[in-house]
Amino acid sequence: MQHESKRKLLDAAQNVFRTKGYAATTVDDICEAAGVTKGSFFHHFKSKEGLTLDAAAHWSTWTEALFAAAPFHQAADPRERVLGYVDFRAAILDRAVPDFTCLLGTLVQETYATHPAIRAACNKGMSSHIANLTCDIEAAKQRYAPDAPWSAESIGYFIQAVLQGSFIFAKAKDGSEVARENLSHLRRYLEGLFPHPRKSNRKEKP
């Protein structure tokens, strides 16, 4: 069982990093947000980078549970699960900007060249999320577009690229409107990738 003060620090780090970024966040900022002492911080972590690595894993565990429990998983049709995933991401946009942006995307933009361990942790977390999504995409491809030249994995990465880019614009615009429009376009694009078979209106001759 995770120590309560450690969990508070990990939760606080997720929120502060998404609000201020990695470089601008200090250990004091995280301790203040968590409501714990600096001594407690160094009891659990050797450094801010050490905390960040654990925070990335903590984020991945939390988001995996969040998406696993999302209602779109209940759909029997994999096409509806893929579209439902996009709808679920759009519903999350009703929160404040830092609350719907991705911790891993925020971290890797700042640290990919300076903190290789953090970059690797972000890559692991994002790739794992895409792998889970790819399962539904592959099932939808087999049912609705079996001869399509693209791979399910490439669509998974494309979906995440749209999301991460949308988060950047949401920060630039200080609002979710552009991100919401982007997800609407993404949904229409995915609908085109997985077209329902057209039903003929002509009656067959006896």
Overall SS class: mainly alpha
CATH architecture: Orthogonal Bundle
Quaternary status of these chains?
Answer: single chain
Going by CATH, what is the homologous superfamily? Tetracycline Repressor, domain 2
Number of helices: 10
Key structural traits:
Tetracycline Repressor, domain 2, 10 helices, disordered C terminus, 206 residues, 72% helix, mainly alpha, 0% strand
Describe the protein in words:
The structure is a single chain. This protein is mainly alpha-helical and 206 residues long. It has one domain: Tetracycline Repressor, domain 2, CATH 1.10.357. Helices cover 72% and strands 0% of the residues. It has helices at residues 4-20, 27-34, 38-44, 48-68, 78-92, 97-100, 103-111, 116-144, 152-173, 177-193. The longest helix has 29 residues, at 116-144. The model is unreliable at 200-206 (pLDDT under 50).
Layout of helices and strands, plus pairs?
Blueprint: H1 4-20, H2 27-34, H3 38-44, H4 48-68, H5 78-92, H6 97-100, H7 103-111, H8 116-144, H9 152-173, H10 177-193
Q: What's a concise summary of this model?
A:
This protein has 206 residues and is mainly α. The protein contains ten helices and no strands.
